[in-house]
Amino acid sequence: MAVAIAELRARGLAWPVLVVDLDLHDGDGTRSIFADDPTVHTFSVHNLTTADERGRHAVAATTIELPGEVGDEEYLSEVKRLLPPLFAAFRPEIVYYVAGCDPAEDDRIGNWKISAAGMLERDLFVLSCARGGAAGARQRPLVIVLGGGYGRGAWRYSARFLSALLRRGKAIEPPGSEESLLQGYRRMAREIAAHELTGDAADDDWGLTADDIAPVMGGMRRPHRLLGYYTRQGLELLFERAGLFDRLRSRGFDEPSLDLEVGNPAGDTVRMVGDRERRELLMEVRLGIDRHAAPGLSLLRIEWLLLQNPRATFTPERPRLPGQRHPGLGMLQDIMALLILVCDRLQLDGLLFVPSHFHTISQGKNLRFLSPEDEGLLRSVRAALSGLPLAAASRAVTEGRVVDDRTGRAFVWTPLPMVLPVSDRLRGQVQGDEYERLAAAAAGRHSFVLRGQ
After folding, report:
1. Percent of the chain scored above 70 by pLDDT?
2. What would you report as the CA-atom Rg of the chain, rounded to the nearest whole angstrom?
3. What was the pLDDT predicted at 137?
4. What would the pLDDT profile of 214-245 be if each residue is shown by its tens digit?
5. How far apart, in whole angstroms, are the C-alpha atoms of residue 327 and residue 270?
6. Burial environment of residue 78 by CB neighbours within 10 A (0 to 12, 13 to 18, 19 or more)
7. Fewer CB in 10 Å around end: N or C, the chain?
8. Which long-range contacts (CB under 8 A, 24 or more apart) does 265-268 make?
9. Closest CA to 27 of 16, 9, 41
10. Percent above pLDDT 90 for the chain
C-alpha cells in the first residue's frame, strides 16, 4: 500500500489517504512509513499482543488495541464508534481497506471470536463510510486488499464481502470448503477422458490390450486395473492434474509415484511413495465395491486408509492420535474428493467405511452412520465433547471420561459403518426426514457428560 500511495504522489495526486487496517495484526508497517506524513492516516484495530512500538506516535494514526477472545459486540462497537468521526475530520479523498480475515472465530492463528455475520457487517460498514453514508453522497475511491486469514475456511469471508460488492450489499453464502474443493476436482475430472484413466485406445472401440487377450491365447489374465477400471498410469495422471504430486514435491518428496496391488479378494490397494528408493510410504488405501451393506445400493468401500508424513514430527499443537505412527499428510480432504470422483466415474452411490477410532468420525461434515440409531448416539457424544480439540476429545473417549449421566456408564467406542453419500438415493436414506427423526430420537435417549480433566 505504501508503494501504491507513493505512486499516486509521483503522479501528482496530493489527496489525503486513509488506510483502514482491520487485519488482526498491528498495521505498524504502514504507520511507520508515514509516521511524519500528515496526509496519510492509518487506522488500525488489532490484537493487543501484536502491537508494535514502531510508528506508534505517527502524526496521523488511530490505533485500537483489543484483548484476546473479543466478540462481535465489542469489536464492531469500536469500529463504528471511531471510524465515522475520523472520516468526517480527516476527509480522505481515497481509502485503502485491509479486509483481514484473521479476526474470524475459526481462524487458526487468531484468538478473536468474530462471527461470519460480524465479519460481513464490518466490511459493509467500512464500505458505507467510504461511500459517504447517505444516498447521493460523493463516493470516494476505495481500494480493497486482502489481509491475514489462516485455515481452509478463510477465503469464505472474502467471498461474502466481494459478492456483496457485486450485488448491492446482498452477499452470496459461499459453499463450504469441502464442497468447494469437490467442485474444483469435478471440473478437473471433466477434462480427463476415460481412455486416459483406463489405458484403452482412444479411437478404437475394441480397446484391447495384451492382458485382455491373454485368456484367448491360452494364458492367464492378470488383473491390472484398480476396481477393474483405473490403470496405474491413469491414477498418476489424476494425481498430477490435481496438483497433489506438485504439493508433495514442494515438501521435498522429489519423486512421488503410485503402485497398485489388485486382484486380492480383500480389495485393491493403492500405495503412494515419495522417494526413488520407494521407502517413504505416504499413502496406502485398500478399496472394494460393496453391494450388501445398503440393500439396493453400490458403495465404494474403504477397507483401509493411511496418510502420513514420515518426515514430520508430532508437536503439542498436533499430538499423536490413536493409530498414528507419523503425523498426517494434510491431504485427507483431497483424497476423499478423489474417491468421490471414483464414485462419479463408476456410478457408485457413495463411500462406505468403518472407522477404527473415534477421531476419524470428525473428518467430514457430510459423513453419516448408516444406522440412524448409531448416528443419534454419536451426536449425543459429540455434544458432550463440543469445544474440545480433536486430540483432547479422542483422549477423553479412550480414558472413559464420557459418561451417560442417566446410566452412569462410560461411552465405549465401537467401530460402526459410516457413509458419505454421493447419489441422491443414498442421500435420501441418510439425510432425509425419517432418518433425522430416528437419529434425534436416539440422541434423546442419552445424556452424555464429560467428567474429569
Report:
1. 92
2. 28
3. 52
4. 555 555 555 689 999 999 999 999 999 999 99
5. 20
6. middle
7. C
8. 266/303, 267/301, 267/303, 267/304, 268/226, 268/227
9. 41
10. 79
Q: Are 337 and 366 in contact (CB under 8 A)?
A: no
Asked if residue 287 lies in contact with residue 249, where contact means CB atoms within 8 angstroms, the answer is: no
Quick one: cell of 298? 453400490
- Of the CATH numbers 3.40.50.1970, 3.40.800.20, 3.40.640.10, 3.40.190.10, which one belongs to the domain with range 2-174? 3.40.800.20
**pLDDT for 53 beyond 90:** no
Give the Cβ contact number of residue 151 at 10 Å.
Answer: 15
**56 band by pLDDT with thresholds 50, 70 and 90:** low
What residue ranges do the domains of the chain occupy? 2-174, 177-353, 358-453
Over the stretch 281-325, which tens digit does the pLDDT of each residue have? 999 999 999 999 999 999 999 999 999 999 999 998 889 988 899
Q: Locate all alpha helices (DSSP H) within 131-175, ordered by sequence.
A: 155-166
Amino acid present at 41: H
Q: The whole model's pTM is what?
A: 0.76
Own/partner pairs for 56-60, CB < 8 Å, 24+ apart?
A: 56/28, 56/31, 58/31, 58/32, 58/34, 59/35, 60/34, 60/90
**Phi, psi at 270, each rounded to 5°:** -115, 130
Say if CB 100 and CB 24 are below 8 A apart. Answer: yes
In angstroms, the CA 25 to CA 111 distance is: 11
**Residue by residue, what is the 3-state secondary structure of 412-434?**
CCCCCCEEEECCHHHHHHHHCHH
Q: Pick the closest to residue 148 from 318, 29, 312 (CA basis).
A: 29
CA separation for the pair 247, 236 (Å, rounded)? 14
Cβ 334 vs Cβ 244: under 8 Å: yes
Q: Which of 174, 96, 181 is nearest to 142 (CA)?
A: 96
Residue owning grid cell 476423499: 336
Q: Which of 51, 157, 68, 160 is nearest to 109 (CA)?
A: 68
Note the Cα 140 to chain centre separation in Å.
36
